[in-house]
Known about the structure:
Elements: H1 27-36, H2 40-54, H3 59-75, H4 81-100, H5 104-120, H6 124-140, H7 144-160, H8 164-179, H9 185-202, H10 205-221, H11 225-242, H12 245-261, H13 265-282, H14 285-301, H15 305-322, H16 325-421
Helix pairs in contact: 1-2, 2-3, 2-4, 3-4, 4-5, 4-6, 5-6, 5-16, 6-7, 6-8, 7-8, 8-9, 8-10, 9-10, 10-11, 11-12, 12-13, 12-14, 13-14, 14-15
Amino acid sequence: MKCKLFVFIFFALSIAYNNSDAQVNVMDSLESVLIKEKNEIKQIDILNQLFGACSDSNFERALQYANLALKKSKYIADGTYESKKRMSQSANNLGIAYLQLAKYDLSLENLLYSLNLAEEIKDTNRMSNSINNIGAMYGYKGELEKAFEYFSKSAELDLAYGNLEGAASSYTNIAAYYFSESTGFEKGDIYYNKALKIAKKSGSENLIATLYSARAMGLRQQKQYKDALKYYQLAISIRKDQNDLGSLVSLYINMSSLYLKVNKRNDAKKYGELALELALVLKSPDDIMRAYDGLSDIYEKSGNMGKALETYKVSMEWKDSIYNIQSTEAIAEMTAKYNFEKKEKENEILKQEKAISDLEFKNQQKELESSRIIMFSAVGGGILFLLLAFTLYNRNKIKQKANDELLNANNNLLEIKTLLQV
């Protein structure tokens, strides 16, 4: 009837927000602090905190906070390092918010904007965050090769600057990439163990849950279904403690698909319905599409073809609204524009460096020419001095000779006179 349900791949997202002076985690408390806060910079910090607090449970609300944080950041922008840092942070979060709502073109637009700002201020942490999230965007869009390219860049950047926790996020995503391939389990396991070691050391439950989810997918590809279910349950346990609805809906979709694979249709239906219920609460188009698609598979294998067709049609309607041609073209255009602008910046830097180099060369040439003139003048002056000295010496010598000859002549004349007188 249709292609098999795509197993949902989990990717680690890099959410950026600062701790405000009020050390509170509950959203209501944060909103109360926000209302009273007069300082605009602190308001932006609180808005990003609010985004982080609801980014896994209320996607539309998270979008509102991230959008307001970026607008405020732009409004008070003054071109300084801190100002660009705030805008990069807020744009990164807005990119994630759009990604969670499957608005991929708007997600990429904001993530590229965040990356540009981070590059301007040479903030390698934020550069890595944005690159990692762009990779996740391509991953969720199904372009895994492109996702892998960005994850690798992010890991290289983190390792170069000693950011191990950042590298762990990229390792997690690279592991997920390899686990998604039937022949990539061994490679995936290498990155999985690297990331898990760092995650456990830092106490990152969020990263550990993502790693468990990725490993479950890898085990499923190896047809080790019992172990895959065990790792999905471990991940679900952590996500329930975190009340991370966004991750839970994806886990339920995968659990449903796996139970259907081992022919446990009742369990598959149970998790499929749980997934759809949460997806509708979150208003997450991508999750709604996948949940309906999964239920369609279940109804089909249960022999309920009417219900299977009904849910399949709903799934396709959601798919058409997400993966439209205009969105794909917009993403390709933005990526090309970013690459072009980056190349332009690099060319401009090369031009400036060449201009400086040419100017330095000209100055060196002028200095060399001046040195030559001085040297030649000195040599010429020296030769002229020697000639003058030689001329004076020669004149004195000739004059002395003439005087000597005149003296001799006078002496001879005196001798002749003396002889005559005798």
